[in-house]
Amino acid sequence: MSTQDDLQATIRDMVQRGKGILAADESTPTITKRFQAVGIECNEETRRTYRQLLLSTPGIGDYIAGVILFEETLGQKADDGTPLVELARRAGIVPGIKVDKGLAGLANAPGDKVTQGLDGLPERLAGYKAQGARFAKWRAVYAIGPANPTRLAIETNAEVLARYAAICQEAGIVPIVEPEVLIDGDHDIEQCETVTEAVQHEVFHALKRHRVQLEYMLLKPNMVVPGKACAAKAPPEEVAERTVRVMRRTVAAAVPSVNFLSGGLTPQEASAFLNAMNRDYRNLPWLLSFSYARALQEPPMATWQGKAANAGAAQAAFIKRARLNGLAQRGEYQAAMEQG
Ligand code: 13P
């Protein structure tokens, strides 16, 4: 197959009604933090066992079309020797890989960060592809503060995201482009909307400049929400209205799917907000779906606690969130479904 055929087939397999993406690509320091918060010891074996538990959940492929893995997982095997990548594939889930190398302070822009990892990326992608990865993820972050994000950070991260996306497509790997405006802080929803619009506008300019084929990429943005420490909360209808408005203003219609991150929302908020968009807005040019880490994994991780005896209950907690988010993709979720 040509790289073009690869891109097309991957998009076809990943963009499906009622399905989304599981982000299970936490770096070792991040998953250590998440495990510790619920009392699970973090080592290579517990990480392997936990990720095997997620990928072997019966029926999970009904709601999850793609999984983002961390480099370590790409080389790990299930108890019976099956590679975890193969476990995903058998469930009908496309395996992908986080390829960025984390954040560094952006020089001359105090408070802003730039994402690292472009050096050697073509060579790394060839290796990941040989191991079964068909798509990639790269995350840029933007904190909202009195002077942040600066124009410099908005332009620099857009440029880097676009270079990453172009390199991926050249390798026949579908890029997930993730510009995340952080939820941390006491800013209001209006500020989040203004910053998200500016960030995405710049990202699409850069994608055009770098000749990225918009048909063969996925966007993974934040929803427009008030800061965690903002006193004024926003109902799902307002989040949906503001988020859809920003997407319409900035995201080209050629992009097949927008898969939101959960970014510190509760699992219930993440489902309710996605649902409101799909319920209240029809005939949008893109699928609106999810690519959640915390909002899918918090309940199963807390249920599992690192104990084999809890594996079944953890899988039940996981598929419940996957199913509810699958319904939210269709605009058919209701808060009452949280019971039972
Ligand atoms: P959250 O859904 O927890 O924000 O994680 C998504 C992700 O992959 C961040 O890069």
UniProtKB/TrEMBL annotation:
Keywords, alphabetical: Glycolysis, Lyase
Protein origin, superkingdom: Bacteria
InterPro entries for the chain: Aldolase_TIM, FBA_I
GO MF terms held by the record: fructose-bisphosphate aldolase activity
E.C. numbers: 4.1.2.13
Gene Ontology terms describing biological process: glycolytic process
UniProt catalytic activity: beta-D-fructose 1,6-bisphosphate = D-glyceraldehyde 3-phosphate + dihydroxyacetone phosphate
Pathway given in the UniProt record: Carbohydrate degradation; glycolysis; D-glyceraldehyde 3-phosphate and glycerone phosphate from D-glucose: step 4/4
Top-level enzyme category: lyase
Pfam family, one: Glycolytic
UniProt cross-references to Gene3D superfamilies, sorted A to Z: Aldolase class I (3.20.20.70)
Family in the record: Belongs to the class I fructose-bisphosphate aldolase family.
NCBIfam families named in the record: FrucBisAld_I
Protein name (record): Probable fructose-bisphosphate aldolase class 1
UniProt organism field: Sulfuritortus calidifontis
